[in-house]
Specification:
Layout lengths: L1 E3 L2 E7 L2 E11 L4 E2 L2 E3 L10 E5 L5 E6 L9 E6 L2 E7 L9 E5 L5 E6 L9 E6 L2 E7 L9 E6 L2 E7 L9 E5 L5 E6 L9 E6 L2 E7 L9 E5 L5 E6 L9 E6 L2 E7 L9 E6 L2 E7 L9 E6 L2 E7 L9 E6 L2 E7 L9 E6 L2 E7 L9 E5 L5 E6 L9 E6 L2 E2 L2
Antiparallel strand pairs: 1-5, 2-3, 3-4, 6-7, 7-8, 8-9, 9-10, 10-11, 11-12, 12-13, 13-14, 14-15, 15-16, 16-17, 17-18, 18-19, 19-20, 20-21, 21-22, 22-23, 23-24, 24-25, 25-26, 26-27, 27-28, 28-29, 29-30, 30-31, 31-32, 32-33, 33-34, 34-35
Amino acid sequence: MLKAVFSHGRREDCGMSQWRSGVWEIGLSLAILVIFFMAPATAADPASKYFYDEKGQIVREEVDSTGSGRTDTWITYKDGNPTLQAVDTGKHGKPDTWYHLTPEGKVARAEKDHNGDGKPDVWTTYQQEVPVKAEQDLNFDGTPDRFIYFEKGKPVRAEESVKRDGKITLWLYYDEAGVLIRDEEDTKGIAKPTVFSYFQGGKLTRREEDTKGSGRIDRWSEYDKDERPILRKVDRSGSGQPDLWAYYENGQLIRQEEDALGRGRPNITYFFQAGVLRRREEDTRGVGRVDLIEWYEDGKPVKRQQDSRQQGKVDVVTHFRQGQIERQEVDTKYEGRFDLIRFFEGGRLAKEEYDTNGDGRSDVWAYYDAKGDKILQEEDTEYDGKVHVRFRFEGGRVVS
């Protein structure tokens, strides 16, 4: 029995396509292609029926190879030698595999009908009964979309038209055991690879991508033993060096770092739980010290604290509701206490309260209209909790 097996399958990662292989999976359903060569039945085989021409030469043989009472193999002869063997491997009463034989009875070519429409969609060429090339029609339109090349009976290289339009956009390379070690894919339609994937033991371990089709790699990914991402680096600026680093655990994003200042080191870090953003830290000036921290719920900010003066002390705290700013506390004197409170409505400043003497109580109140212009300011000039002076504004000026 001759058996040729070779496969690869497809999966999605982060929006990108991925191809991997240990044996050759074929067809849109990714069923495994297995081609069997069955030696012609002998005259002593009671399950065979022979048909002869007027000269007494055998021209055809029908074989029930399983003893089921139903023919599953049809052999055509010429000059007493088998030339074609048709086999019903799917037990549906008609051939789905055809073997073209040499005068010596060896397989020269094989054809396989995978979808049961009666037409071959896989063609394999042999030399000395060893496969050297296979072609596969993946969308069953009669035209091959995948080409596999063998050496010593084992696949070493494959090419494929991913869009089934006749243009080769995927190249696969295999080791001596027929296991995929690298594939290259043209995802931009520029007639050259833009995604390079590397495998060990048939599993994806590393990937490099030219996401812009510029001829330069700008994204690098590493994967664990289960083909889940563990690290991804991205060059967004086109400098040739990463400016974004994403870290994963069990395939889920846990931390992302960004170099927003172009200094070759991250100054912003995002922290995730179960793939959801929870906290963001930023060194806004790139001095090596975090001066802004934000907390998130359901992907929206709920709180932010800042060291606006870069002195190592928080002087502004902002609170959000449904992603919109609601209240802000400010240490205007940088004395370790918040003496100014701002209130917002619909994301706009509506009111300010200011403690000018540091007694812990507000003594100045300012009110703003929908345009953000101050319209009223009240002051407790005697610090007794009562309003003693009111200023009314129009167009930014005191009118009364």
